[in-house]
Amino acid sequence: MSAKEDVHTENKIYSRVQKILSQQYGYLSICATCLLIIVLYVSIAYLRFAPKILSRLEESVGENLMKFAMSLEKAKNPVDAKRIYEIATKSKFSGEFNRTYVLYRLGYLYWEDKEYEKSAEYLLQSVQSTFPQISAYPLLIDSMLKLNRTEECLPLIEKWLKEVRDREMYAEAHFYLGSVYKRLGQENKAEETWVKGHKILPGSKSTYELAIHYKSLNNCEKAVYYAESVLKNQLLPTREEYMNKIISQCKSSS
Amino acid sequence: MKEKRRYKDNLNGMTNVGESLESVERDLLLRRITVWGIFPVWILLVVLTLSPFTGDPSAPIKNLIISFWGFIGSIVVVWMAWYKGLEIKLKKSLSIFIGGYLCILMFSTIFAYNKGLAISEIVLWFTLCAVAFSIHILIREERELEWILLWVVIAIGLSSVYGFLQKFGIDPFPWSTRNVEEYRGLPSSYANPNFAGHALLFGVITSAGLTLYYFSLIFRDIKNNSEENSSSLRWNWIKLAISLVAFFLTFTHLYFTRMRSARIALLMSFCFALFYILYGHKWHPRRIIGFALGLSVVGVVLITIIFYILGMVGNESPLPFDNSLNLRLNGYYGAVKMILERPLLGYGPGNYRFANIPYWTNYEKLWFTLEKKRNYHVHCDPLEVLIDGGILAGVFYFGMILLGFVGGIYLYRNSNTKFGKYIGIAISSIFVAFASDAIFGFNIRVPVSSALFSLYLGLSQFMIEDEEIRVPNKRFRTLSLIAFVLCGITSIYQAFAYYADVNLQKARGGIHWAQEYERKNQPQVRARLLDKALEFVEIGLRYKSYDPRFSEVAGRICMMKDDYKSALEHFDRAIRVDPYNPELWTVQTQCCLNWVHYANNEKVNLDMPAQQVLDLAEKSAENALKYNDKYPDAYEGMARALYFKTLFLRLPENDKRDLYSRAIEYGKKALEHGVKESFSLLQILILCHQGIKDYQGCADFLQRALSIDMENIELWSRYANVMKELGYPPEYLSTLEKVYAKLKKEANRTAPTLAQLGLMIYQENIRRGEATDIAMSVLEDTLRLNPNELSTWGAYIYAVPEGRRLESIRNQVQKLSSATTPLPEILGLISKPEEEINWLYITKEVLNLVNSDEKNRVPYKTQVLRYSWIAEICFSENINSSKGDKPEIYANLIDIYLKLKFQHRALPCFQLAQNVQSNSVRQRVFYLWAETLFKMKKYEDSLEKIRESLKINPEHIQSRVLLVQTLLQLNRFSEANLEFQALKQVLPEDSATMRSLKRMFENRQS
Questions:
Q1: What residues have CB less than 8 Å from B664, skipping those under 6 apart?
Q2: pLDDT value at position B228?
Q3: Contact yes or no for B674 and A86 at CB 8 A
Q4: Do B246 and B205 form a contact (C-beta atoms < 8 A)?
Q5: pLDDT at B423
Q6: How far apart are CA A63 and CA A84, in angstroms?
Q7: What pLDDT is recorded for position B791?
Q8: Minimal CA separation from A140 to chain B, in Å
Q9: What is the pLDDT of residue A121?
Q10: B286 contacts in chain A (CB < 8 Å)
Q11: How far apart are CA A214 and CA A198, in angstroms?
Q12: Biggest alpha carbon distance in chain A?
């Protein structure tokens, strides 16, 4: 083929391409092909980096499971929520505090189901983590007391008292400490601790326990004092009826 | 008037399809009716219709409406071609892109795995293309364009009103997802907030464009205030109000859907509109596209850098993306792999949903298992299009979007009116938004957004500068006729598809109610409902055999009807069209296992050898795990299948041990992966550990099972056996005492378990050498707690030496008679003075009680604790009696013992009952005797008793059947055959008994 013919063919192709490009569909098809190439390039680039990205995404699977379980809890489906939380405990978390939270929720759900052994197991893990879940302490101590593991409670409450941040919880810690002392037969120490709890937050559970304690000792004066404190502060509405009963009993006996 | 004049003026300045076809005078009335009347109704129906009769209330009915429109459009076109003898000019680009896309999809269908589904998708695509095509033919004037857009805005606005009513709790539609988070995203008439988001984009942008347009008109009219234009001003105010209200409604609704991709899409479209108003309007459309491509290249570089950062930078720390993003990124990975595996023709339209399972990443496996869901779409339309039809399909898909985009720009450029300017930008912005939204979703596959896409694609061709294909009337006639026929077929197809979905929903309803009636213990109503449900689903199957949901539901119904063979056939059919679905494989496993279990319980024969059924179960579970190794139900199924093999197949001991070990391995994995109902699996694991004599493992799982069901008396009984094997570890007693103390708090409710525990504590104390009196105290304590419960008495009596039992009962009855709780009536009968006791009456009473317990599904162990002691006392007290009713008493005792599965205790009773006076009772005694001996494999003795039974009643069918079975066991084939032939005269040949005998014959002879 001569050079002249080559040029002729080239011109022919060029004019043909130009003709196609001058048409709407031709131009758009070429643009669409370019877009397709872009999509394919991005896809292949993703394929190259995806294993690393996906493995990093898998690291936060625990958080996503946690959210899923939380939504189940919200939808009042604690059975499935527990199952998902349990799977989450075996998964990877991007933040250790989230694992702690999962343990706490799991402990809470078991505590609600009165499965105190499992509840204590998870709650204990949640308070022993690097980011202890302080709100787990009351449930943990309660579970321990229900399981008659009273002696194990003392070091836990000591730790709790060190980590506690607000007044309400400080008072609650004293209430549980008093309860533990009482279980251990150390009535005086229990009384002393409850009094402390009462001073921290009058009308709290410690106050309530003091009212009952003094009533059992037939010290009506103090029983009435603490019962009235419970009524006055209105922190324990469900127990007010019993406090009224103590007051009326004491008054009638005097 | 002025407004009308303005329109006419506008018409003069534009090139439109109609003008090139024929003059305005020859315009068709039918076309006008379609545009001005049928179109608005269609838009309203597509956007607003929901059907409560289908599982998905949106897609089936909307698809039907869309296809129906295609049919109407084709009628108009046929009318134009045949009646009016017109010729048409089609836009070349639109024809090429739409036609090309359809052709590619059809071609890829040939190689699709599920061809039925691929065809159904093509039908849908054909309808959408027909909509776009017919609209580009039918719309000729700007005011028609305005009219249609106004109705789009009204329809989407009304849908948003419904969305807000949902927010305030006013919603008459029976949503099944009302309590699901999804409902809070205001699904409105789209059935899903994401779908709503896709459609709302059209509403928001169009209403914004119309609002600006009407505002500009009003602004101009107010400036040129005259009486003449007051009427048009009033109308413009009304239209402005409509657009403005629709804008606020749709915009707010879009916000409430919480859809991020829609927000990004809206932002992109806003950026484009701003760019176009500021600079782009001076540019040629081709330059704009070129610029957009340039931007895309920059975008690609940026995306690659982002990928690099996500993958490489900060390698140690995890990426805290939420689940939605996480799933998308995982899904894209599999999708890209799929594209690279079949780049040319793809997997066929819609086949992604079936083909993607083998490409699931670990995260997807975990998530879809937990949520019992799967991804039907990639959530990235460009990728899904490539999977559907390969690379060429991708070119046509992008071509269609670019065509719509360019069409809007041409409308802006070529229109002399403000309407053209505003709506031109709006249409282009819509295509920008659509493309952006498609990157994170599947808007082309959702009925409303796909219908709107087709509508806008057709509308965008209004003033596009494009070559036209002139179709002469002769060819137009042929083409219109083909289109008419095809549209008719697609409409009928969609109608059948909808009808099939309605039937599926009815079948599901039937299953639900059947379960309800099962709970109410009404088996006949349940059976009727299941029959009806099967009928419905089979109707559906006729039209949608490619849809695995139908076969699966049919299979489940058959399983509920105990017709396992048919169920397996249905599951097999479902698996053929959905071969990677781990859930289907697992259901098949369950079906096989249920069949074997049922056959064993009901003493019916399997239609194929047990080995084959159990192998199928194992294979199915294996397949389920092959496609999803995080599926706990499949692990559970596998464990169960292996355990069943040990239970129902005759295997050498070594093989059995191997199967037990494997079952334990799979069972543990099921628990590890969070199997939902773990109790039954724990029971299997306990038995498997017992099988391999790993008593420690057995004890561990027993404790786990007991922590789930502490009151399970059978488990406690097993626990005692395991502890015996472990040599009664020191903590055994303390565990029992702890649980006893716990259950004591609810003594009434937990009476049988408490009795069992009391007995176990007593036995352990005795074993440890405790004095009997002290050991007995726990049983006396239990008796005081629950004197009204026979099982408590049973536990107590077991601890009393045999000779002193009656006396002991009298003492305790005397002691406890003053208690507030009344004692069981039967105790009053037993504690009478010896000569007054009516043992025959007592045995009859006990038999009634056993029957009633059996009916109420009282656990077997509880029944044993309740009644076996009475039977024992009755047996020993009457053995030396010479009363006339002695044989009758023992005849009743036979029934009691057999019901309590105490065959060895029943055996001596047969001897004592054989002289019973009543012929029928005597015959029954002999028959039961023969049956018991048969079960004990004492065939000669059994034969003798059968002969006795037949002597009394030669026609007794059960005895005759047992005779054939016994003769077969004794290899006396000719006699057995003789009896069998005789039985054929009285029993229908297709009865279960005859089939079972036939199979026995075959087995023995082979």
A1: B639, B685, B688, B689, B692, B697
A2: 63
A3: yes
A4: no
A5: 95
A6: 11
A7: 93
A8: 19
A9: 93
A10: 27
A11: 14
A12: 132
Taking Cα atoms as reference points, which of B395, B382, B428, B391 lies closest to residue B97? B395
- Confidence (pLDDT) at B1006: 65
Of A49, A67, A75, the CB nearest to B310: A49
Nearest to A31 among B293, B318, B397 (CB): B293
Contact B333 A45 (CB under 8 A): no
Confirm whether B386 is domain-assigned. yes
Q: Which of B386, B106, B304 is nearest to A36 (CA)?
A: B386
Of B362, B398, B676, the CB nearest to A35: B398
Cα–Cα distance between B642 and B658 in angstroms, integer?
9
Please report the pLDDT score of residue B512 as a whole number: 94
Query: By the 8 A CB rule, do B143 and B27 touch?
Result: no
Tokens of B668: 């543990």
Q: What stretch(es) of chain A map to CATH 1.25.40.10?
A: 56-163, 167-254
- Listed in sequence order, the residues at least 6 apart from A160 whose beta carbon sits closer than 8 Å to its beta carbon are A127, A134, A137, A141, A173
CB distance B300–A86 less than 8 Å?
Answer: no
**Low-confidence residues of chain B, pLDDT below 50?**
1-25
Q: Does A47 touch chain B (CB under 8 A)?
A: yes
- Interfacial B residues in 171-190 facing A (CB < 8 Å): 179-181
Give the end of a domain, one of B805, B830, B849: B805
- Three-class HEC string of A184-223: CCCHHHHHHHHHHHHHHCCCCHHHHHHHHHHHHCCCHHHH
Q: Where are the beta strands (DSSP E) in B876-995?
A: none
Residue type, B808: S
How many whole angstroms separate alpha carbon B979 and alpha carbon B974? 9
Angle, alpha carbons A207-A209-A213 (nearest 5°):
115
CB of B319 less than 8 A from some CB of A: yes
The total number of structural domains that make up chain B: 2
Residue B324: what pLDDT?
Answer: 86
* Minimum Cα–Cα distance from A33: chain B residue: B395
Coil, helix or strand at residue B89: strand
**Window 333-372 of B, Cβ < 8 Å to A:** 333, 336-337, 339-340, 361-363, 366-367, 370-371
**CATH number among 1.25.40.10, 1.10.10.10, 1.20.950.20, 3.40.630.10, domain A56-163:** 1.25.40.10
Dump the DSSP string for B95-107: HHHHHHHHHHHHH
Q: Is B424 on the interface with A (CB under 8 A)?
A: no
- Tokens at B653, concatenated: 């001991």
Is there a contact between B391 and A36 if contact means CB atoms under 8 Å apart? yes
CA A239 to CA A205: how far, in whole Å?
10
Render B555-591 in DSSP notation, one character per residue: HHHHHHTT-HHHHHHHHHHHHHHSTT-HHHHHHHHHH
B788, B805, B822 - which closes a domain:
B805
| A193 band by pLDDT with thresholds 50, 70 and 90 | very high
Of the candidate CATH numbers 1.25.40.10, 2.30.290.10, 1.10.8.60, 3.40.1360.10, the domain formed by A167-254 belongs to 1.25.40.10
Shortest CA gap A67–chain B (Å): 9
Q: How far does the CA of residue B291 sit from the closest CA of chain A (Å)? A: 11
Q: Residue B705's CB: how many other CB atoms inside 10 A? A: 22
Find the CB nearest A60 among B319, B333, B676. Answer: B319
> ipTM greater than 0.90, yes or no?
no
Given this model, what pLDDT does residue B9 score? Answer: 40
Please give the residue range of the domain that contains residue B218: 2-292+376-500
Residue B409 near residue B3 (C-beta atoms within 8 A): no
Q: Does A147 touch chain B (CB under 8 A)?
A: no
Q: Which two structure tokens, joined as six digits, stand for A168?
A: 């309400």
Handedness of CA B885, B886, B888, B893 (dihedral sign): positive
